[in-house]
Amino acid sequence: MNLVVLEVRKMKWTIREIREHPEEIVPFDETSDIKAELIKRDDSIIDVEPVRISGYFVEVDESFLLHAEVEATLTVPSSRSLKPVTIELNVPIRERYVYPNSQVAMDTTEEVVLELEEEAIDLAVAAIDAILLNIPMQVLAPEEEQSDLPSGSDWTVLTEEAFIQQKEQEKAESIDPRFASLKTLLEQSDTSEGKD
Q1: Which of 43, 74, 89, 124 could form a disulfide with 11, with the two C-beta atoms 3.0–4.6 Å apart?
Q2: Contact 65, 57 (CB under 8 A)
Q3: What is the CA radius of gyration of the chain?
Q4: One Pfam family of this protein, by short name (predicted)?
Q5: How far, in Å, CA of 24 to CA of 35, rounded?
Q6: Would you list the DSSP string of 95-163?
Q7: Which residues face 87 on adjacent strands?
């Protein structure tokens, strides 16, 4: 029996650690098992492999920037059949942490601005939020992507594009009842002119 040892590092960085770091930019590359927390927030998730988050912190104008990338492998149900489907996510995180009542101009920053609730930044929370916001709305198993949409004797599933196209075709083919008589008269007029 082979055991795989996964190096798991801390996911919580104190403001003091960031400020006392010998370099201005504080790099990190950490792996953590956040499966329980993710499933607690979204119970449709079937499984989550340990998540990797790498990036850096930097202090700028009494705020702390977090620029990172989250790599996660999740198992979620297919949107069509509910069969388990494994998906891989690579999600960027751009956050700025500020103290309460901070004067940081929130509209001039490219990062999401968050208020520090304690003297620490929890990378696990940032990773969980990023993953949950980026799980695709439609997930299909490989065989479902290749197959036609399901249908029955009096029903069929349409893509959004097919539905819009069908509605436009129905609209073009439908005749306003007020103009039906006029159309008949015009057709009769055209045929009578052709005989002359």
Answers
A1: 124
A2: yes
A3: 28
A4: YceD
A5: 32
A6: EEEE-TT----GGG-SSEEEE-SSSEEEHHHHHHHHHHHHS-S----HHHHHSPPPB-SS-B---HHHH
A7: 74
CA proximity to 26, closest of 60, 72, 2, 75: 60
Structure tokens that stand for 86 in this block: 């494994």
Query: If you search the block for the tokens 């304690």, which residue do you land on?
Result: 118
Q: Token pair of 140, please?
A: 């299909």
- Report which of 131, 108, 112, 113 is spatially closest to residue 53, judged by C-alpha positions: 131
Q: Is the pTM of this model over 0.85?
A: no
Q: Which of 164, 67, 70, 61 lies closest to 105 in space, CA to CA?
A: 61
3 state SS of 54: strand
Could you tell me which of 95, 134, 91 has the C-alpha nearest to residue 114?
A: 95
Helix (H) or strand (E) holding 30: strand 25-32
Nearest 5°: phi and psi at 53?
A: -130, 125
Determine the pLDDT at residue 188. Answer: 74
Q: How confident is the model at residue 147 (pLDDT cuts 50, 70, 90)?
A: low
In the numeric block, which tokens belong to residue 70? Answer: 């989250």
What is the token pair recorded at 16? Answer: 């003091």
Q: Considering only CA atoms, which of 1, 12, 139 is closest in space to residue 82?
A: 139
